[in-house]
Amino acid sequence: MIEKAVRLLMMGALMVLAVPGQAAVETVADLQSEWAHITYETDAKSRAAALEALGEAARRLSDEHPEDAGLLIWQGIILSSYAGEAGGLGALGAAKRARAALEKSLELDETALDGSAYTSLGTLYYKVPGWPVGFGNDKKAREFLQRALSINPDGIDPNYFMGEFLFEEGDYAASVTHLRRALVAPGRAGRELADSGRRQEIQRLLEQVTQKL
Predict the structure, then answer these.
(1) pLDDT in tens, 29-58
(2) CA–CA separation, 172 and 184 (whole Å)
(3) 130: three-class secondary structure by DSSP
(4) Is the Cβ–Cβ distance between 22 and 56 less than 8 Å?
């Protein structure tokens, strides 16, 4: 009997360890930190599963604190990242859940986390396929990204994603302007890994854009 109980406890411990981030994730800062670790330090083969688990942790926290716009934003960001990693039509459901979380956060506080909901919504709208497959819409993408920049004009993320959007639109000169602004954006306290990873992405995209000029 005792041996069986020990085996059950060990199985429970293994189940906790098998779900990345769930045991320790309790705040927006925890979600940010775990997302950065998964995005920039986790092997590509493990990334989708890790993001899926983190998304579930974010959903649980949002359910526990439904008035916290920041938690909803991070639920949306994580779901968006998971959709990007998972790919295919199956990812569209995650993208729709991300959109719903981000839209709900705007109803609570559109300026939460320096307007990050607008940045993430804008990114979703230009990355998701358009009708009839998905809800992608370049006009809405531009509107959301411009709104994000009006709230946080010098931020690394709104400038990077506006630069990426403009690159895909073929407006290379304007893309370079935003990417260079993103590259010199002030660092964010507690987000050092995310900032470092983002700057590497900016540099890679800048190289592509300058080749087009």
Answers:
(1) 999 999 999 999 999 999 999 999 999 999
(2) 19
(3) strand
(4) yes
